[in-house]
Amino acid sequence: MLKPFEVHVQAEPLARLEQELDGAGWNALRAHAQATRARMAGRTFWNISSTARGGGVAEMLPRLIGYARGMGVDARWLVLTGTPGFFHITKRLHHALHGSPGDGSALGAAEHACYDEVLRDNAEELLVLVKPGDVVVLHDPQTAGLGPALASAGARVVWRCHVGRDTPNAEVERGWAFLAPGLAAARLTVFSRAAYVPPQCADRALVIPPSIDILAVKNQPMAPEVARAILAVTGLLHGPPDTAAPVFTRTDGVMGCVSRGADVIRLGAGPAADLPLVVQVSRWDPLKDPAGVLLGFAQLLRQSPQLRAQLVLAGPAVTSVADDPDAAQTLQDVIALWRQQSRFVRQRVQLVCLPMADSEENAAIVNALQRHAAVVVQKSLQEGFGLTITEAMWKARPVVASAVGGLQDQVIHGENGLLVRDPGDRKEFAEAVRSLLEDPERAVLLGRRAHDFVRTRYTAPRHLTDFARLLERLDARG
Known about the structure:
Helix content is 43%, strand content 15%. With 478 residues, the protein is an alpha/beta fold. It folds into 2 domains: 5-211 and 459-476, 3-Layer(aba) Sandwich (Rossmann fold), CATH 3.40.50.2000; 224-457, Rossmann fold. β15 (399-402), α13 (407-410) and β16 form a beta-alpha-beta unit. α1 packs parallel to α16, α7 packs across α11 (359-372) and α12 packs across α15 (440-457). The two termini are 34 Å apart. The model has no long low-confidence stretch (mean pLDDT 94). GO terms for molecular function: glycosyltransferase activity. Residues 274-450 form the Glycosyl transferase family domain.
């Protein structure tokens, strides 16, 4: 019997966000909080996802739920469980909604039967917990099929899709057809971009971009010497130890210390602290194109062999993300590609699996890596929304991203970063990275503008306000 489990989230005082806002903004957020608390009195605000760690949903939910609880709303988070076959199907759906065939496997009646069976098992437990009038936000394809059972029990169901493609094709249509029975039960649907909304959801769709919490461990201020100390302990930098300790502040205010090392594939010792790093931090997913990043950087090195830089391709330990069965194979493919490169290239590329046993320690390592990077890249072939780019922009890092999906909303070419028009064009990618490495003054200017852009558009207060309005609209559809 498959049962969902609850991830317990501590309440976060909403007052922590006051420092992010001017007086008018803070007063508006408090007014939304008061109205939401009254609206949700006696009801629970459930979020249901497919994994508790790894990926953007697991990144955002703890912070948003914590602040909702700080408002006085009974917000809770459940994670469904599934079989390997189920997660293979949902990964296939993930690729389809991006317009990609993935491994080319079927999405037919047999796959739907497996998908439905797993969700029926999970729904039995959910129907004990979820009461009439409760609000349930289902996140992404893995959970969409829970909609009919929860709606029949009297819950107000919202489906939140974090992925999509600007120009639908046959694969996108195949994905929507598979999900259609579940989506019919959703009163509202939420997308990261208007272009992702399918016709069957057009009359009940809201656009709510993702966000980061600038107070989270991954985004908290960090001195350069602390970042270097963390990367040295993790094994990503080499050299004499800094006088600083590899420490960070946990969510509960307790001081934490990074002690776990990463699994690293490279030739020789790690880079010196003064060597510029080009960094991509992403799940091991073919749509993130780690292979293309490696080959693009190799082309950069061939064009500019005297350039002082090293590439770091980093992602989570592949056994740590339950709903991503492609991760191990994608990593193995990148390792095989790395081994095919010349020694000259292999000496300047390291592949890194970051430890995930302690999620806040992992967040501190990512924070250090992004802050230390000379350039942060996200060369995705498709991307619903790039949280890692948002994080890097908040840290005033110059960024290079593909002109696909939500990355086009985040990065304005030449203003707060650089966009590669064709994500498959390695020459264009290499030139963009080279231009930032060779013009540090321009890189600093783009980074400053990026920081300001994120502050006004992609932080927690805006996201919480959007969800307050969602609840208002949901009740209006009552």
